[in-house]
Amino acid sequence: MDIQMPHLNGVEATRRIRAWEAAHGRASTPIIALSANVMAHQVESYREAGMNEVVEKPIDLSRLYSVLDALAPR
Q: Could you report the per-residue pLDDT of 15-41, keeping only the tens digit for each?
């Protein structure tokens, strides 16, 4: 989930997804924040919105694959 998107940022999109999941009794979809804004308070706000993990931009593919592997259902 890109944090800075037009019309609806990633934090708000994640909040809406989590609310929908809760309202419909659905399991949580893994959501990874993608952002260059990774100061501690920013990362905390992503996690508070319901994001599972954060991958910094520019994206290091080995880091992204590691996070995907950790969050992917088996």
A: 999 999 999 999 999 999 999 999 999
Domain ranges of the chain: 10-71
Can you name the CATH fold of 10-71?
Rossmann fold (3.40.50)
**What backbone phi and psi angles, to 5 degrees, belong to 34?**
-115, 115
Whole-structure pTM value = 0.90
The CA distance from 36 to 17, in Å, is: 22
Q: Which two tokens stand for residue 33?
A: 């924040």
Long-range contacts formed by 7-15: CB under 8 A, 24+ apart = 10/34, 10/35, 10/46, 10/51, 11/45, 11/46, 11/49, 11/51, 12/49, 14/46, 14/49, 14/50, 14/51, 15/49, 15/50
